[in-house]
Amino acid sequence: MSFRAGDKVLIVSCADDPRAAGKTGRILDEVPPGTLTDGRWTVDRISWLIAPVLCHTQELRKA
User: Fold this and answer.
1) Could you report the per-residue pLDDT of 7-43, keeping only the tens digit for each?
2) Nearest CA to 37 among 15, 20, 10?
3) pTM reported for the whole predicted model
């Protein structure tokens, strides 16, 4: 599955920050992730207590 910048996603799990699991956020990346992020998507707007996180595709679902 591929995402686009601005897509609203449900974070099913997140190795980067487990507090983000079960919350929704928005994809920041304009292009598919590469080696710089180890193939993970940048998700923002989760909570004012949680900074943007990096999540693998299998950790996300479209909301």
Assistant:
1) 999 999 999 999 999 999 999 999 999 999 999 999 9
2) 15
3) 0.92
* 24 phi/psi in degrees, rounded to 5: -110, 155
The gap between the terminal CA atoms of the chain, to the nearest Å, is 13
Q: DSSP letter string over the chain?
A: ----TT-EEEES--SS-GGGTT-EEEE--SS---GGGTT-EEEE-SBTTB--EEE-GGGEEE-
55 strand-pairing partners: 41
